[in-house]
């Protein structure tokens, strides 16, 4: 086996030499005597054939330790990327349906094979049991670090463990409940502004309002910085994120290039994407630096261990309590939280509205209002603990997050030999994870109903007819859902975002009857880089049914 690999790598080298010789004679005008060029071309041809036979036939059929898993072919590698202009999720879901009993599926692409884990058993291995055998691919991390900084999302190993340990406590439910007033007051401003816009223009666009309200909430929770995006027409940080998350073929090409070019070369190419990333990242860095300085100057937070903190400053204080952290790292961590804690929840607000305004599902708006009425609308929205227990509200949030996971694709690379569902996974294997496909897998989510919006699956009916929320949606394991992932790299902001979603949806649908514009009753296509939004935006009109 090893001899075979060395022979093939030698041939691969000859192949590269052949290409160099060919290009130098053809394009650079070097005159290489024919007697040398001919054998080089022949070697090139032979090496090319052998490498192809090895990649296409020999390795996948006889040598690949992952050949116990079924194989599919992906001619367009863009469908495997988290940053892409390609349609999202659907190819992976098709593969999952083609191989319903598979634990994992091998995906052959023109540039090599990758693996995707699909069953709860395989996902548990990749994300929990053997989680320390994986890292996020360096090329993708280098690309994203320019926007998000080297914070919790992109750090690895001991640095990640240290950062996660310091940050975990600020995401406890008690601390999140402490942010309820802020979340509610920002939601109220959102609704006032939306109502004004609707009166003036007859419509409002949900993606952009979701983005503004979540930016204002995370800005205030993270660093006492009120971006006031909700009342500012051109808020620079909001616009910076909008541009950074927009999809374009240019961004996809850049992301693909990050696999072959070192970061310091790629980031210096004079391209439109580089200019856009540099300009917008600087806007975000400056905002974080200003927020940090203001919070320290106002004594809201103090660097170092054991320092007193004011209510609501927990996230920034926990970043500062890590005594090993430099100012650049603090700002990187703030960029991470601004990015991660903003567009993700914003898209969930848009998707929930998208679903609840479709003809088949509109009646869930009425169901939700009835639940809020029965509890007492004002009692419910002013108390986070009441909202946490409302069955229909929570079931609608859970089902939206299942059906439209904002992050549809992510990846891990095995840093040592490991196993998935009993099969050996060699070091260097790229494991791509598709929350979109896993969350809609008919095998675990009720066959034909798996792609339908069925909030009832999150509810259990008691003998007295009352309903109670369950934690699994009827699936056999929580690894059947990947919206927030699992394990030590799962989303630290999971409870934060659920609290936000609850208060925003309860206030919004509790006070407005929300409808699409005439003629628009279609299921929108999900598009977006990193997170998915309804294509073309989601335009709605509002009719007030209750005073706030
Ligand atoms: C609906 C809302 C959200 C969804 C669906 C979501 C989803 C995810 C996913 C899938 C990951 C793992 C990414 C990967 O490993 O490739 C992640 C990680 C992370 N999320 Fe979220 N997220 C949401 C909201 C938030 C919020 C509100 C915050 C902060 C306030 C946040 C902060 C983070 C951080 C810091 C990480 C990195 C965790 C680590 O690696 O230790 N997220 N999120």
TrEMBL record:
Cofactor or coenzyme needed: heme
Alphabetic keyword roster: Iron, Membrane, Metal-binding, Transmembrane, Transmembrane helix
InterPro entries membership: Cyt_P450, Cyt_P450_E_grp-IV, Cyt_P450_sf, Cytochrome_P450_monoxygenase
Pfam family, one: p450
Transmembrane regions listed in the UniProt entry: 41-62
The keyword Transmembrane helix is assigned to this record: yes
Entry similarity comment: Belongs to the cytochrome P450 family.
Protein name: Cytochrome P450
Source organism of the structure: Zasmidium cellare
């Amino acid at each position: 086996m090893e001899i075979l690999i060395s022979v093939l790598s030698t041939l691969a080298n000859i192949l590269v030499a052949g290409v160099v010789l060919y290009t130098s004679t053809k394009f650079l005008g070097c005159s290489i005597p024919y007697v040398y060029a001919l054998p080089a071309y022949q070697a090139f041809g032979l090496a090319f054939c052998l490498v192809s036979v090895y990649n296409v036939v020999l390795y996948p059929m006889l040598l690949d330790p992952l050949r116990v898993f079924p194989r599919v072919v992906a001619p367009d590698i863009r469908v495997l990327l988290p940053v892409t202009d390609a349609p999202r999720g659907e190819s992976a879901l098709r593969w999952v349906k083609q191989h319903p009993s598979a634990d994992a599926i091998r995906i052959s692409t023109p540039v090599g094979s990758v693996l995707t884990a699909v069953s709860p058993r395989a996902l548990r291995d990749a994300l929990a049991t053997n989680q320390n055998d994986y890292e996020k691919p360096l090329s993708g991390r280098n690309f994203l670090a320019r926007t998000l900084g080297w914070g919790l999302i992109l750090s690895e190993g001991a640095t990640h463990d240290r950062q996660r340990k310091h940050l975990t406590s600020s995401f406890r439910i008690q601390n999140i409940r402490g942010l309820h007033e802020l979340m509610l007051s920002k939601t109220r401003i959102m609704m006032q502004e939306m109502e004004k816009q609707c009166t003036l223009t007859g419509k409002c666009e949900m993606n952009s309002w979701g983005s503004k309200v979540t930016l204002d909430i995370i800005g205030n929770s993270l660093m006492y910085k009120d971006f006031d995006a909700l009342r500012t027409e051109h808020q620079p940080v909001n616009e910076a994120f909008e541009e950074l998350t927009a999809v374009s073929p240019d961004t996809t090409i850049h992301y693909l290039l990050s696999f072959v070019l070192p970061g310091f070369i790629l980031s210096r190419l004079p391209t439109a994407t580089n200019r856009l990333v540099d300009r917008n990242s600087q806007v975000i860095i400056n905002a974080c630096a200003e927020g940090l300085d203001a919070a320290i100057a106002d004594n809201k937070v103090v660097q170092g261990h054991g320092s007193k903190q004011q209510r609501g400053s927990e996230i920034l204080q926990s970043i500062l309590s890590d005594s090993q952290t430099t100012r650049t790292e603090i700002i990187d961590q703030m960029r991470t939280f601004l990015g991660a804690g903003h567009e993700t929840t914003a898209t969930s607000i848009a998707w929930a509205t998208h679903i609840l305004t479709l003809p088949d599902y509109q009646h869930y708006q009425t169901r939700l209002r009835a639940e809020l009425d029965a509890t007492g609308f004002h009692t419910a929205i002013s108390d986070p603990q009441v909202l946490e227990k409302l069955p229909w509200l929570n079931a609608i949030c859970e089902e939206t997050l299942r059906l439209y996971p904002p992050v549809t694709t992510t990846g891990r690379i095995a840093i040592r030999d490991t196993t998935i569902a009993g099969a050996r996974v060699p070091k260097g294997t790229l494991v791509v994870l598709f929350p979109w496909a896993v969350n809609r897998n008919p095998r675990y989510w009720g066959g034909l109903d798996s792609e339908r919006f069925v909030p009832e699956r999150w509810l259990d009916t008691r003998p007295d007819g009352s309903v109670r929320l369950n934690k699994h949606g009827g699936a056999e394991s929580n690894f059947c859902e990947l919206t927030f992932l699992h394990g030590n790299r799962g989303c630290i902001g999971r409870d934060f975002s659920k609290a936000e979603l609850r208060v925003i949806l309860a206030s919004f649908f509790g006070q407005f009857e929300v409808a699409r514009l005439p003629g628009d009753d279609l299921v929108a296509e999900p598009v977006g880089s990193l997170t998915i939004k309804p294509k073309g935006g989601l335009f709605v009109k509002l009719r007030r049914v209750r005073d706030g």
